[in-house]
């Protein structure tokens, strides 16, 4: 998320992601939606949120959506709705946004970190079973960079051990695994609408989706003080709500999500075709699933030099993520001695090239030209 600087020494940068460009694309629709939401005079959990919850759940292919304050809170709420808390373990990856792990800690549970598959950067199902203990309650795969994790194997192992599966879909709005959208595969799916995500608000927002009516009901109560009716708490809950203005904006952008994802795929295809002849390792797409390219992530053995080279040419490449969660000061205690070799390797080599729907083909070709100058 460190790639939003608009200018460098007065020179126009090509940003890594560009939420303002997206606002300008849909400006008249968004401005009208905001103004309507303001006129309604009901600013929290009103008609816009209810409509957006229904539309987004329908888009994902499940029956319930619960709008919340952020992606982190979506994961926290999903875990709490499943009754997961202190004394419980939740298995996830270290190669992810820190929010995934922070949300498990927020729920009071213990994150257990396993390694990733080198090609997809997602949770390696072969590393899952050995990490399961009697305290394990859930698996939390992350559909990283826009690509689904290997869900069949994960679901099969979870079923055998009676574990919940909670999907972190914060980077993969609209991606499909064997025809089904991510978020509809496990017990609950968690989305972030942070401005740079494939579906981004103009502020914070998130959603939990599920086909399970009991889990949805629990999530609805917990997000607002455990209220079943106003002012009467049935559970110990807290406050994590999506607001009306953000919901109104997200309803506009949801209508354009598939089209915007297609633009990302087009740009990724250009990168793939043109960089194919270099010694860079390009993203690999899993068979039977789609990739929505939240990020276009290559690997280079000279990553840091390439990053500097591109920055000097006004290209805002970025690293997702430079330090694995178990190496960050707050979370070194989560390093339980398990091998995270692929995670460590990825952190040293990954580089995200600019990627967002409004990025022009001309800009992509200029990025490719600069990359080739460095690597050839
Ligand atoms: C963005 C992100 C989150 C957190 O979302 P916020 O809305 O910023 O709280 C969680 N997981 C992943 C993988 C993310 O990319």
Give structural notes.
By secondary structure, the chain is an alpha/beta fold. It has 12 helices and 15 strands. The chain has a 7-stranded mixed sheet, sandwiched between helices. A two-stranded antiparallel sheet has the order 1-2. Helices cover 37% and strands 15% of the residues. It has helices at 19-25, 27-40, 47-60, 71-81, 98-106, 151-160, 213-222, 244-254, 257-275, 303-312, 341-349, 361-375; strands spanning 7-8, 11-12, 64-68, 89-93, 110-114, 136-139, 164-168, 176-177, 180-181, 188-192, 206-210, 227-229, 232-233, 296-299, 350-353. The two termini are 29 Å apart. Pyridoxal-5'-phosphate binds next to α4 and α5.
SSE string, helices as H and strands as E:
EEHHHEHEHEEHEEEEEHEEHHEHHEH
* Relative helix content: 25-40%
Shape: globular
Radius of gyration: 20 Å
Beta content comes to 5-15%
Mean pLDDT: 96
Low-confidence stretches: 1-9
The span between the termini is: 29 Å
The main sheet orders its strands as: 3-11-10-7-6-4-5
List the helices and strands and how they pair.
Blueprint: E1 7-8, E2 11-12, H1 19-25, H2 27-40, H3 47-60, E3 64-68, H4 71-81, E4 89-93, H5 98-106, E5 110-114, E6 136-139, H6 151-160, E7 164-168, E8 176-177, E9 180-181, E10 188-192, E11 206-210, H7 213-222, E12 227-229, E13 232-233, H8 244-254, H9 257-275, E14 296-299, H10 303-312, H11 341-349, E15 350-353, H12 361-375
Parallel strand pairs: 4-5, 4-6, 6-7, 7-10
Antiparallel strand pairs: 1-2, 3-11, 8-9, 10-11, 12-13, 14-15
Helix pairs in contact: 2-8, 3-8, 4-5, 4-7, 9-12
Residues 70-72, 96-97, 99-100, 142, 168, 170-171, 192, 194, 204, 206 line the site of pyridoxal-5'-phosphate.
């Amino acid at each position: 998320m460190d790639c939003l600087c608009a200018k460098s020494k007065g020179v126009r940068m090509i940003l890594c992601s560009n939420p303002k460009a997206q606002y300008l694309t849909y400006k008249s629709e968004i401005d009208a939606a905001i103004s309507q939401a303001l006129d309604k005079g009901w600013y929290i959990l009103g008609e816009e949120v209810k409509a957006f919850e229904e539309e987004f759940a329908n888009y994902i292919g499940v029956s319930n959506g619960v709008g919340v304050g952020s992606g982190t809170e979506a994961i926290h709420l999903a875990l709490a709705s499943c009754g997961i808390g202190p004394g419980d373990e939740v298995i996830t990856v270290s190669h992810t946004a820190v929010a995934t792990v922070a949300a498990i800690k927020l729920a009071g549970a213990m994150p257990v970190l396993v390694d990733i598959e080198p090609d997809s950067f997602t949770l390696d199902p072969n590393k899952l079973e050995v990490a399961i203990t009697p305290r394990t309650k859930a698996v939390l795969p992350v559909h990283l960079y826009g690509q689904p994790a290997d869900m069949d194997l994960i679901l099969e192992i979870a079923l055998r051990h009676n574990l919940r599966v909670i999907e972190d879909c914060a980077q993969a709005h609209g991606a499909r695994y064997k025809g089904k959208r991510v978020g509809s595969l496990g017990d609950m799916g968690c989305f972030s609408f942070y401005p740079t995500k494939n579906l981004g608000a103009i502020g914070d927002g998130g959603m939990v989706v599920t086909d399970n009516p009991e889990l949805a009901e629990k999530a609805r109560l917990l997000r607002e003080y455990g209220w079943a009716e106003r002012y009467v708490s049935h559970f110990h809950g807290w406050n994590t709500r999506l607001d009306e203005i953000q919901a109104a904006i997200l309803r506009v952008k949801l209508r354009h999500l598939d089209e915007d994802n297609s633009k990302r795929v087009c740009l990724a295809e250009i990168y793939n075709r043109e960089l194919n002849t270099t010694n860079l390792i390009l993203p690999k797409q899993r068979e039977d699933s789609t990739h929505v390219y939240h990020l276009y992530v290559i690997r280079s053995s000279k990553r840091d030099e390439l990053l500097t080279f591109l920055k000097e040419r006004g290209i805002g490449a970025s690293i997702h993520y430079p330090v694995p969660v178990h190496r960050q000061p707050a979370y070194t205690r989560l390093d339980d001695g398990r091998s995270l070799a692929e995670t460590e390797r990825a952190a040293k080599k990954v580089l995200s090239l600019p990627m967002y729907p409004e990025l022009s083909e001309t800009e992509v070709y200029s990025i490719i030209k600069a990359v080739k100058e460095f690597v050839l």
